[in-house]
Specification:
By secondary structure, the protein is mainly alpha-helical. It has helices at about 5-15, 20-30, 35-55, 60-65, 85-100, 105-115, 120-135.
Length: about 140
Amino acid sequence: MPLPVRPVVREILKNDVEQPVPDVIRKARAKGVTASDGALREAIYEIKGALRKAVPLAAPAAAHATKPKTGPAVEPAAAAPDLSAVLTNVALVNAVVSAAGGVEAARKVAEAVRACGGVDAFLLHLDLVAQVRGPAS
């Protein structure tokens, strides 16, 4: 059974998202990934983008020092992660994984949602498929 591309690529990129694509492909091949170069490149670019979005870039210190202060200095309150919301989302994802028949199947559903252009578009496509398949599905 071939290794799934995305988990292997994510594992390779998790510590250094700026690795060159050819190096990531070489490492993925060494771990046993047999997918085409095109599929690997697509996964690498998508995962790099997602990882970059997940880690906000810090502004250079010089940018803070040269910015003139206007008005009273008000420090925004640090936003603490809402633990109950995180746990609620984890429970929802767990339910989806169970309903889909596993993590890889749930990942395919998420990728289908993204490919359709979002949840609303996916639901429209889902309604269309339900109509085509009929009430027995």
